[in-house]
Amino acid sequence: MAVCLLVTLPLEFVFRARVYRRARRAVAAVTLAAAPFVLWDLVATSAGHWHWNPRYVTGVMLGPLPLEEVLFFVVVPLCGLLTYEAVRALLPSPGPDGGARRQRDERPGAR
Known about the structure:
By secondary structure, this protein is mainly alpha-helical. It has one domain. It has helices at residues 2-14, 23-46, 67-90; strands at 61-62, 65-66. Strand 1 and strand 2 (65-66) form a beta hairpin. It is elongated. The termini are far apart. 11% of the residues are buried. The model has no long low-confidence stretch (mean pLDDT 86).
C-alpha cells in the first residue's frame, strides 16, 4: 500500500490532479468506495467466513478488522482517484459536440 501511495503521490503535483487540495471531495469519494467493502468484511468476519492470519498483520485492530484491511479500502480508492484525476488533467475535455475541445493557454497574458 505504501508503494501505491508513493507511486501515485507525484500525480498530485506533476500532473496537477488536485485530489489532496479538494480534501472533502476525496474523503467523500473514498468513503463511498470503502464503506460497502468494510461493511462486507464486518459481516463476513462476524459470520466466521474468513479471518486474518496473525502472522501477516500487525495486530492493530479496528474493531474486528485488522488495520491493514481498513487501510486497503482507503488507499486503493485514493490511488485510483489520483490516477483518474491525473489522466483527466492530461486529456483535453470534450466539447459540446463530443469532440476534443482545444484547451485554453493558461499562461499569464496568453490569448
